[in-house]
């Protein structure tokens, strides 16, 4: 497994996409923190969570990067060489998922603490001390969400194998579908609270009124969805031709 992980790391980091994605994700996330800080009129009202409001921009970039990490191999048929060298497809795909998830974690850490540093620098009078469990969760929760979202994107990429389709699914689902569900009369709002990306709101911002689970239970739910999708993707990958 160590050899597989090393191989996947080399394959991932020797392409331009992850590097550009890292720069873009960090730029968008911290850039939003800069904009918020410069437009903040009352430092007393600024809290730790406000420095993390731009995480969704970075999250979208990370999800696209994760989907491309697997769909690009299918597009250029290099995945066939991987499966010929490693007959155990599950091990090969798990190694790829682990490497992509690790990169997403590092990007999330840099984005979260970079945004917090922006707040400390530009709003020195704000209450941005990490002096509570909730404050730490709001910051460290961002890289955790990035990591799980990357796993979801890889799973979707394995199942769909096409870059455009996989990117469309992960972005439309997270940005559009879950919000449109709330428009369903009577039951829409309640259904949305059980959507996976809606759970991340409760995890990072919570506890929020009207949500069915607590912050950490919401994250467990989100992670459970990722695991279920990954298992389904591995089953599909084993049953069909590369």
UniProtKB/TrEMBL annotation:
- Tell me the keywords, alphabetical order: Membrane, Transmembrane, Transmembrane helix
Top-rank taxon, per record: Bacteria
User: Transmembrane ranges?
Assistant: 19-38, 53-72, 93-123, 135-160, 167-187, 216-237
Keyword flag Mitochondrion: no
The entry's protein name is ABC-2 type transport system permease protein
UniProt organism field: Actinokineospora guangxiensis
């Amino acid at each position: 497994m160590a050899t597989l992980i090393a191989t996947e790391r080399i394959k991932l980091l020797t392409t331009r996409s992850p590097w550009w994605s890292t720069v873009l994700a960090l730029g968008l996330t911290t850039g939003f923190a800069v904009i918020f800080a410069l437009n903040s009129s009352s430092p007393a009202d600024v809290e730790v969570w406000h420095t993390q409001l731009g995480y969704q921009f970075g999250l979208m970039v990370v999800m696209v990067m994760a989907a491309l990490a697997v769909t690009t191999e299918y597009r250029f048929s290099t995945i066939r060489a991987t499966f010929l060298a490693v007959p155990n497809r599950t091990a090969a795909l798990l190694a790829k998922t682990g490497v992509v998830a690790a990169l997403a974690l590092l990007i999330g850490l840099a984005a979260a603490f970079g945004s917090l540093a922006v707040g400390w620098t530009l709003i020195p009078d704000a209450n941005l001390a990490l002096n509570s469990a909730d404050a730490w969760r709001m910051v460290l929760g961002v890289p955790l969400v990035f990591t799980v979202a990357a796993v979801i994107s890889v799973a979707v990429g394995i199942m769909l194998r096409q870059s455009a389709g996989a990117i469309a699914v992960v972005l439309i689902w997270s940005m559009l579908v879950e919000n449109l569900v709330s428009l369903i009369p009577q039951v829409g709002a309640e259904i949305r609270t059980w959507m996976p990306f809606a759970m991340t709101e409760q995890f990072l911002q919570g506890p929020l009124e009207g949500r069915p689970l607590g912050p950490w239970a919401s994250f467990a739910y989100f992670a459970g969805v990722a695991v279920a999708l990954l298992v389904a993707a591995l089953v599909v990958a084993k049953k069909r031709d590369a």
